[in-house]
């Protein structure tokens, strides 16, 4: 990821359509220790080829939804980040 | 008691009813979501479900807590979701609750299925007959 | 299809779910009313149900027609009521419906149980432990 | 039943508490061919010992509820009349 400050390595999980587009269900990525969620999402989208579904994605950090993409996320080494396409359980 | 599970095999409905049984309860409500055979004129052969397992279980447990704070009389709650391939007519999800009186059981099950669809990280892909591309579905708000 | 019955033996819940199955349906809702073990501090041993059989069946069928006019998408409807002695924890009534989408199944079952309690001529007597007199119950409006 | 005009014989069915008080589940009774429901109910109540539950009873004629006790009922020979205490199915 493009970043100037300190970075940590986190696990990124991909599901459903995002998994298919990324051609991967899991990846390890260096991320800044603090970053605005929408900036992070943009970087992941471009790196993993998710442009076509960008506007439908949300993020979960350590198994909790990031409700607002304008929020900042604080990362620690080994955190889990998930790319969440629209849900369709039930 | 709360019974929350992701399962890879057919869900045994009779067992769900047993989990709800309680001498102090007068009412059980059971919702079963099943795979339909059609979508916009295309014939559906099966559904393929995948989940963000740990987070899905966490969200399913949160739904249980929410139900208990809204309807404190609830006795047993069951939320089972099946993963992998689910053939037409088989259950993908079962949500059930028992309570002394009927309104709590009925209302909480309705509420829980809406919650599940909006916040539990599970996805389904419909697989169609013929050469239609399979499609990731999207729950409406 | 409408399945309406007064039965003298335990109701087989798995069979009810089979009656609801349909390839075009995505949702089933099943309500089970069971005998509770207590009423106002008295221990209930069993319930004894009696019905005005012919009229009860007629009213149960009317409920089915009412459901179908309110929710035309409904596929199968089941209304079973047990008569005679029903021990604690066993089902006295089962109301169930299946439909392509969930709201019809859930709402129609809720509506039907309220209707059954107010218009189907069936009566229950609670039989208590000890020397408490058994008592004819009365559904609240 | 006390009546002056033409009468017909009908079946009267008793249920639950009414059955217990009447000590019978079924009886045949002569009724006027036309009578106001509340008058009929009063006569049945006094004849079958149902005074204690009078205010909680309704009637069904040929398997249909009589919604309003001020309605008149028209009877034919062999009609079925039911004494209905408060329902408690479910």
From TrEMBL, chains A, D:
Complex and partners: Heterotetramer; composed of 2 small (MOCS2A) and 2 large (MOCS2B) subunits.
NCBIfam families listed in its UniProt record: moaD
Sequence similarity: Belongs to the MoaD family. MOCS2A subfamily.
Record gene name: Mocs2A
Main localization of the protein described in the UniProt heading: cytoplasm
Pfam families: ThiS
Processing and modification events after translation: C-terminal thiocarboxylation occurs in 2 steps, it is first acyl-adenylated (-COAMP) via the hesA/moeB/thiF part of MOCS3, then thiocarboxylated (-COSH) via the rhodanese domain of MOCS3.
Keyword line: Cytoplasm, Molybdenum cofactor biosynthesis, Nucleotide-binding, Phosphoprotein
Protein name: Molybdopterin synthase sulfur carrier subunit
Modified-residue entries (Glycyl adenylate), positions: 90
Annotated function: Acts as a sulfur carrier required for molybdopterin biosynthesis. Component of the molybdopterin synthase complex that catalyzes the conversion of precursor Z into molybdopterin by mediating the incorporation of 2 sulfur atoms into precursor Z to generate a dithiolene group. In the complex, serves as sulfur donor by being thiocarboxylated (-COSH) at its C-terminus by MOCS3. After interaction with MOCS2B, the sulfur is then transferred to precursor Z to form molybdopterin.
Sites bearing 1-thioglycine, chain numbering: 90
Misc note: This protein is produced by a bicistronic gene which also produces the large subunit (MOCS2B).
Cellular localisation: Cytoplasm
Pathway: Cofactor biosynthesis; molybdopterin biosynthesis
InterPro entries according to UniProt: Beta-grasp_dom_sf (IPR012675), MOCS2A (IPR044672), MOCS2A_euk (IPR028887), Mopterin_synth/thiamin_S_b (IPR016155), ThiS/MoaD-like (IPR003749)
């Amino acid at each position: 990821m493009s970043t100037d400050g300190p970075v940590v390595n986190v696990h990124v999980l991909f599901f459903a359509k995002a998994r298919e587009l990324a051609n991967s269900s899991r990846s390890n990525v260096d991320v800044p220790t603090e970053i605005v969620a929408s900036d992070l999402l943009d970087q992941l989208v471009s790196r993993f080829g998710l442009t076509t579904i960008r506007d439908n994605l949300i993020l979960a950090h350590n198994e909790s939804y990031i409700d607002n993409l304008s929020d900042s996320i604080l990362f620690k080494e080994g955190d889990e980040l998930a790319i969440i396409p629209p849900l369709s359980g039930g | 008691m709360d019974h929350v599970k992701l399962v890879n095999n057919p869900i045994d409905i009779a067992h769900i009813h047993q989990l709800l049984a309680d001498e102090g309860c007068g009412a059980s409500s059971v919702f079963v979501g099943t795979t339909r055979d059609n979508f916009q004129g295309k014939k559906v052969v099966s559904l393929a479900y995948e989940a963000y397992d740990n987070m899905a279980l966490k969200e399913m447990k949160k739904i249980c807590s929410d139900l208990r704070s809204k309807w404190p009389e609830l006795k047993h709650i069951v939320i089972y979701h099946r993963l992998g391939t689910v053939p037409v007519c088989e259950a993908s999800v079962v949500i059930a609750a028992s309570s002394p009186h009927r309104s709590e059981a009925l209302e909480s099950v309705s509420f829980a299925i809406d919650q599940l669809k909006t916040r539990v990280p599970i996805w389904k892909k419909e697989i169609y007959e013929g050469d239609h591309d399979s499609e990731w579905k999207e729950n409406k708000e």
